[in-house]
Amino acid sequence: MRPPLRPPVRHRRAAATAAAAAAVAATAALALGGCSAASTAGEAGSPIVTSFYPIQFATQQVVGNAAEVTVLTRPGAEPHDLELAPQDIGGMTRARLVVYADGFQPAVDEAVGLVDGAKVLDVAAAAKLVPASADEPGHEGESPGQHEEHAKHDEHGHGADDPHFWLDPSRYAAVAQAISARLSADDPAKASTYARNTAVFVEKLSQLDDELRVGLRQCRTKQLVTSHGAFAYLAARYGFHQQGITGMSPEAEPSAAALKAVSDLVSSAGVTTIYQETLVEPHFAQTVAQSTGAKVATLDPIEGITSATRGSDYFEVMRSNLATLREGQGCS
Ligand SMILES: [Zn+2]
Q1: By CB atoms within 10 Å of each CB, which of 122, 125, 251, 328 scores lowest?
Q2: 80 C-alpha vs ligand 1 centroid, how far in Å?
Q3: Signal peptide span per the entry (predicted)?
Q4: Domains defined for the chain, CATH in brackets
């Protein structure tokens, strides 16, 4: 069981720091207590720690059976607001490698500061992240008061990069290649295994990309209305325009004016399906659907796999998303 580390939002950073300090103290005590403790940190036998599902899955595909891969975000947990227990942070400091994407999970970004920089891989650069689109209703035309309210909820911050790279298979492939390159450099004896595994994974991603391109080529509407703005990279790759109801952060609450703007867009663009998500409260998607007569369907941003997920891994869920989009957008 994890300790109930659930402080209010504004105290989250302080709590993470306290947990981090406790973990460092524990690690230091361990090092003092035994002559071998310090030297075992980060050796080849210790696991590769990943931050959340898409990075875990890509790392597992690259590694195969060659190393243990663990994940900080439990299945079913909403990853944006992850909080780390002291043992999570302790595990990071002992990991052979920590793989994460900077700017997605503030608690991980902070804890990474406690890990030896030589044992950290940030995949954000490989994913070629770009700033979140400014045309989400939570970001556009909001008053200074709304801005403050929004910023309080949105820990990605304004102008921050959109982290949802895995929903574009080509960006996801680039991340897998970066993970493979790093693991090969750290462990040259297994480089050919990593290269072979990565080639298989990249080929599967390429097939998926082809299916998405063909399946989404001819659609009645290319306007996509989603709950949180997770699908901008997917939208950009396959010719859609995304409007996220709550902006980038699933926790943000859109204003009445923002909801009205989305409803107007739904009507003017001929949108007939609003997409809710598996890990996000569907309230706002349903509000917009009710006011416009649109249907609600579930599109999965694949931030975690649960028993409710339609598919047991990234590929299955992406194909389920493809079927949902073809139906919802009227693609032929
Ligand atoms: Zn997200």
Answers
A1: 125
A2: 6
A3: 1-31
A4: 14-130+163-205 (3.40.50.1980), 214-328 (3.40.50.1980)
